[in-house]
Structures are given as C-alpha cells and as structure tokens.
# Entry
Amino acid sequence: MIGETWDYVIVGGGSAGCVLAARLSEDPDTTVLLLEAGPEDRSMWLRMPAGMSRVVWGKRYSWSFISDPEPHLGGRQLGHPRGKVLGGSSSINGMVWLRGHPRDYDGWEERGATGWSYADVLPYFQRSETADQTADLARGTDGPIRVTRPRLEPSSLADAFVRAGGDAGYPILSDFNAGEQEGFGPIERSTHGGVRTSASRAYLKPARGRKNLTIVTSALAQEVILEKGRAKGVRYLKGGKSTEVRAQREVVLSAGAIGSPHLLQLSGIGPAGVLEAAGIRVRHDLPGVGENLNDHPDLVIQHQCLEPVSIYPVTRRRQSWIAGAEWALRGTGPAASNQFEAGGFVRSGPNVGHPDLQFTFMPLSVVPGTVDIRQEHAFQVHIDLMRPRSRGHVRARTADARQAPAILFNYLADPADRADLRGSVSILRDVLAQPALSRFAGPELFPGKQMQGSAEIDAWINQTLETCYHPVGTCKMGSENDPDAVVDPECRVRGLEGLRVIDASIMPEIVSANTNAATIMIAEKAADIIRGRSLRSEEPFATTGRRQA
# Structure
C-alpha cells in the first residue's frame, strides 16, 4: 500500500471514526481509508451486553491506560480502558445512551464553538438513533444506533430506586433524552434485541461492501505526514512494517481523547516544551494539544439488600451459564442488559443552573477496589460529578508511538469538585433512606454509616474515587481568539491545512452525562461539515430543554 492515495484517511475506527467512514463513503466518488489499531469486533463478548466485564479490563480490546500518580488522590494511579477494536469504546463500554443537557451545547457555542448550540446538534442526535418506546419529537426514529429503554418491573430494585427519587421530591421522568433531565427514571442503552449496538455494527457494517471504503485493522498510526503546512498522509505500523498512505483531501484524526492528541504530538504538533522533552521535532507549536483533559469522577455507595432480589446469584458459575444460554438462544434475560437500568440527575445546590450530579443504580455490588462481585444480595449506586472544574493533560513521553503517553486527570485539583462530591453523599443517602426502598435497603456496606464528618468523607473520597471513563477536551474546539483551542468550529486544526480532529477530544466542556452519544453526534455533524451540508432543528426548544408553547 506504499504510495496509495485516498481522498480521506481516517485514523481511529472507534465511535467517531466508524460514523465518519460510513457517512463520507456514501458518496461513491469519494474514497475513504479507515485505520484502526485494534482487531475486528467479532467476539461474542463484544455483542453480549453482560460481556462488558470480560472485555473492558483486558488488553485484547482495550488500550488499558494507567494514569500517572494523581496528586490529589494520594498518588493513586487509576486504570483507564479505552476501546482498541473496531467500534472503539462503543464496543466495550457500558452502553449507556444519554445526550446530556441542552444547556451543555449552548454553553459550547458561548465559549466559541459557533454552530454547536443545542438547536444545531439536535438534528444529529436525532439522525444517529432509533429510539425505543418514544413519540417525542426530540427523538430519532430511523437512525443507525438502536436504543432500548428498559421496562422497570414494579417489584424490582431499579423501580424502587426511581420511586425513592420521587419520595425525595424529584420528578420521575420517562426519557432523559427528550430535553428534561432533572429527576429519576429508566436509563436507555445502545442495545437492540439484547445485542450491543456499537458504532461498528450500526454504521460500519452496512457500509463495508462499498468499493470506495477500505478498512485496515491492527494498524498503529505513527505520525501524520506534514508537507509545507499541510497534512498529506499518515504513516502506520502493521505487522512490524511501516507503511505510508496519502490523503488527497484530508487526514482526519478520530483516535479519541487520549489517542488524537498523542498522535498530533508524535507528528510534531503541540506544545513546544512537551515535544522537545519527548525528543520530538517541533513542526507546529500549538499549546492546547493534550491539555484541558476532563473526565467525570466516580464514587459508589453500597447497601445490603434485605430481600433476595439482586442479580448476585446470576453472577455465579452455573447461573451465569444459564443466563448466557438464554441470551444466545433468545436474546433475553440478565445477559441482555447492562444492568444500569435506572438513575437520576440532580443539582448539587440551589444555585446550580442544571443537574451536575448523576446517580446510576446497579442491582449488585462490586468489592471496592476490585472487579469481584460481593457474594451476597446487595446493590450499589454510582455518583458522578458531571461538570468538574479540574483539568489534566495527555503528553507524549517519547517519539515511539508504541509507548503510551503520560496521562494525568488531576482529579479534585479544584477544591470545588471535592466540596460538590462531599455534598453528593448526603444527597444520595437521603434518596436511599426513602420509604420506597425501605423493604430492600439494609445496612450501608460502603462506606458505612459511621462515615459522616467532612474530614472522614474527604479521606474516603481520596482512597476510593475512580473514573467514569469519559475523557474529553484534549483537542478543544474554539474560536481563533481562544489561545487554548486546537480546532476551529469546523474541526480543522488551527494553523494547518488538510487536517481535522473529530471525536470526544474536541468537546470544549464535558457534557452532563455519559459521552458516547455526544461523540457519535459530533461525528454525524462533522461529516456534514466536511461534505458542505447542514441540518438545524426547527423545534422551538428553550435552553432548559423544555418545549416552548
């Protein structure tokens, strides 16, 4: 393939890359090459929702990144899986399908991402999905991503958790993706018929027969080839052999919030000091590359379950095989669910404009600090801080693409993040103490009711805080007046031609929910930008997400 040329060379066959490859190759006169560092997504465990636990922590389908010692967490290093397979993280993630709040996107535009307001992005959310059980005009009805809304059985733990939110004074919602977000309700997932709907299965699989689309797996990108200020191609490593391919029109990086800034830096594009320290020749000094790393920090509260209604028994060997057989034969049963079936969004205080805390319920408990299931009936609720102020970075260590970059999330560097999380514990404990859960909620197993004082809770946070696996922002989108912006609102890398970044790394600010739906939306919209097309919602939504009369 040395010297071969395509119109577009896309690096990264993850959530964004699959969308771009499918959309750009719709034009039969356009040739597209998609490079993915990982393998094909053929494993049964990538299709089974309950198989997530088998693939997310291994190295076959994940980059298995490890952060640098986190200075505000006592020097702990946190594992951070990222998809290394066709479909990327959409092939190994928890399948939670949430858009975030409309104000998130209006905030993007206010920060210089012109054309990315909620009214601008809504049509692309709609185009990306086929939503189950909805008649709401804000939802999509014929898109590639099939979305399932779980039906919460009246006697289930998940239903009791939602009703407890109502008891605590919060609204009960049927659809977090229709604009309204504050309240409790079922959490949609990107599955259909009990099977994971990854970006690869939804977008790439139907496009694979096109003669103008070429897909190369196990291809590790080494650098973007620059000539006279223009991206001309990509050099990648496959089977020990380095190969150079050329892009007639553009090179597009869709390697994610870790991979895209790393590849830019390997190519000599980034902060001069970082590049020089890594022994990389500076080709284009761009200070924001790899900076502004943001993620949702995560805490867990666990309770013993007084009735034998958790799914703990299903995790035992014999029952798990039975559940697997039911899934294989019918696409139903416990293995067809991600088990994140209920949750809530609340505000940490009365002066917060829209929800900044997310609660996610699970009808089982994991031994803290491990991936082992508690051997008893129990449940847990995750607390995620939606708009943390702390920022970290991604920085190349050497010029060798095979060596992972230095990753520092810098969790809780801003004291306000710690204060918000400290307060979230009281908010969630109040919900869990409501009458709707009284028949189920036994003693608090973790951290334990004895953990009450601010100093004690802060120490517990330091010892147990984890990641929600939602890195964004390292190739920030913004205006030409923003010195930290890496790409403009058309996703073009500032100061260079023929090079774009299109993935979660371009988010100016993290969204107030899981990030996969937003990443797919970004790629849908960016594909239209590249093709010179545009959609805009005619629906008169307020910035709160409420439909106006």
The chain is about 25% helix and 20% strand. The longest helix spans residues 415-432. The radius of gyration is 23 Å. Residues 1-146+190-294+392-399+470-533 form a domain with the FAD/NAD(P)-binding domain fold (CATH 3.50.50.60).
